[in-house]
Design a protein that fits this description.
alpha/beta; two-stranded parallel ribbon
Length: about 130
């Protein structure tokens, strides 16, 4: 829709291992997500639909590949830059947040103070 401002926040809680797979960062990812993070972080190949997934698809937040959370496929998008005039109908890709899938909700067992994160984003929205 050309009447909406879009912002995307993706998360990442993995790092490159010696085997060149993405593995959970110690102490950053809920244990609940670690098994799926390891599986996503090691997968390379083709999906049943014929989509080739290379190493760029391995970084993840435990539940979602980081690259897939950046913006909808084929949608107009650009990296967010502080101070620029924002346009409606364009996805602004925010910097990747270092944390697992629950980090931006405050976490489950690994608590994450997100008050500043949301106050800054609300300030950004209020200035539109």
């Amino acid at each position: 829709m050309d009447s909406v401002y879009y912002f995307s926040y993706s998360c990442s809680a993995t790092e490159l291992s010696e085997e060149e797979n993405q593995v959970p960062i110690e102490g950053m990812m809920e244990k609940l997500f670690q098994r799926s993070a390891v599986r996503m972080g090691a997968f390379r190949g083709q999906t049943p639909d014929g989509i080739n997934l290379d190493q760029t698809w391995q970084e993840n937040d435990g539940l979602v590949n980081t690259i897939s959370a950046l913006y909808p496929e084929f949608a107009p998008h650009e990296d967010f830059k502080n101070g620029e005039t924002l346009k409606k109908g364009l996805w602004y890709v925010m910097p990747v947040y270092k944390g697992d899938h629950m980090s931006l909700q405050g976490g489950l067992t690994i608590k994450n103070d997100i008050k500043t994160f949301y106050l800054e984003h609300l300030d950004r929205i209020n200035r539109l």
